Each structure stands twice: as C-alpha cells, then as structure tokens.
Amino acid sequence: MSTILFPSPIFGPVRSRRLGISLGINLMPADGKVCTFDCIYCECGLNAERRPTLPRPTREEVAEALEKKLREMADEGQLPDVLTFAGNGEPTTHPHFAAIIDDTIRLRNQYCPKAKVSVLSNATQLHRPDVFEALLRVDNNIQKLDTVDMDFIRAVDRPTSPSYDVKKVVEQLKAFRGHVIVQTIVFRASPQPPLKMTKAEQEVFESIAPLSTWRGAGGEAAWLAALKEIAPQSVMIYTIDRETPVGGLLKTPPEELDRIRDLVISEGIPCTASY
C-alpha cells in the first residue's frame, strides 16, 4: 500500500482538515518512522517497513529550521494558523521534547503570536512528568483515544509496549483537568479481504474482521463514559483520508460521523467531525 513520510524537522505549510493552515514540526527522522503505536491505518506506514537510518533532528536543528521558515512565511505575508507537532511517529518520544516546546512557544510569540501550538500525540508518554508539563503549555493538547477496548487497541493501534493500559491512559487524560482535546478515528472493515495482500496483512485483516466497526467491546457507551470522565475541552472525530498500509479499511460515511458527533455533543462536550 502507498504511504507517505514527511520532511524533517519542518514540513508544509499544509491545510489541515481540523486545524487550518498548519506548519508541521516533525521530530522524527526524515527517512523513517519512530512510533510507540503501529496503527494499521497510519498514513506513514507500518513500523517494520519504515525503519529509519537517519537520526532525529536535534533541539538546535528544530529551532533553527523553524525560525528560518517563520521568517520566510512572514516575508510572504502568509503566517500559519497553527504550529503542529506531527510527522513520522510520536513526537513526545523525542528526548528533548519539553525544551523544543519552549523554543517553539518563544518563536511563535516572536513571529506569529496569533498562531496556536498544537501537539498530535497517541498519549503513550503521559506518564513522563516532563512531557505532561510541556503539554500543559501548548494551546492544543490533542491526544488519541480511539476506544477503551484493549482487544481493539491491540488489533488496530498495536502499542509497541506490552505494558500499555488504556485505563491508565484515561486517568492520565483526566489529570489534564480539561486542558486536552481527544481525537478518535472511526472506520469500518471491509466485509471481504482485498484481492492482493501479504501474509502479514492477511493476519492483521483477519484480526480486525470480527470487530463491528471501530467500537470494540462496550461500544459507544464505554467510549462516551470515558469521555465524560476525562471532560476534555473538545473531541475531534475523523475517518481515513489516505490509503492505509493494511488493506480492507473503509471510510466512515459522513452521516455516521455526524451521528457520533451529535452523541458527544449531547453529553455536553464540544465535538467536530472531519470527513
């Protein structure tokens, strides 16, 4: 399957479905993926197929490249709406993530004070005090919670650490006391496997085929209950936008996304749906 990798340490700007004109900050190597999840829907591909040979950019390299790009954008009269930490893997795994956040806030204040600093994260590093405190300093602390069913998470998000526990993640998200945006992907599995699949892809597809859409055990009720506990400032639901590394995954129709969005809103939590 066709997947993409992003330049490092700066890419874009790109138009984000959820965030507007976004200047990307990629703390991973440009030639590979480093992630604590191995999601079957990841646009960057599967971890085993994207092993990097280059190092991660240093703190100094990130700050230098970001300042250069912001100067260029200011000269062109096109300032970003948001500076977004995303790219080829989990940004919070960078050993100097907290310091890079401080550098980014300083440069944002200098060149584009109206822009928001956003972090797209899979919530696997929230146990680290330096990461948690840094996320409190950003404008949009966007953390993934696809479901609260561990069987689904093992089959779809595929954490690389055997100690991953979604119940602990929910508790860590609650600890932000509302300074968090929850992001959830919604997709369907095809009733029939694709014609061309590798043995590994076939095994993955067979593991998700019995799951009725994205919900897993407990369905929407368990996910909604977790959201009510977390009490986030908002929820973002979205569906597949690009080709996925594992075949047989289908976009969720807009009317289904709207139905789930309205369920969240009915619980008093702001929610948006991206198609």
Structure explained in plain terms:
With 275 residues, the chain is α/β, with parallel strands linked by helices. It is 34% helix and 18% strand. Strands 1-2-3-4-5-6-8-10 form an eight-stranded mixed sheet. It has a two-stranded antiparallel ribbon with strand order 7-9. β2 (20-26), α1 and β3 (82-86) form a beta-alpha-beta unit. α2 (97-111) runs parallel beside α3 (129-137). The chain is globular. It starts with 9 loop residues before the first strand and ends with a strand.
Task: List the main descriptive attributes of the protein structure presented here.
275 residues, alpha/beta, 8-stranded mixed β-sheet, two-stranded antiparallel ribbon, 8 helices, globular
Brief overview:
This protein has 275 residues and is an alpha/beta fold. Helices cover 34% and strands 18% of the residues.
Order of the strands making up the biggest sheet: 1-2-3-4-5-6-8-10
**Low-pLDDT segments:** none
Q: Largest sheet, if any? A: 8 strands, mixed
* Overall average residue pLDDT: 90
Helix content bin: 25-40%
What general form does the structure show? globular
β-strand number: 10
Number of helical segments with 4 or more residues: 8
Beta percentage is 15-25%
Query: What structural category do the secondary elements indicate?
Result: alpha/beta
Give the N-to-C terminal Cα separation.
Answer: 21 Å
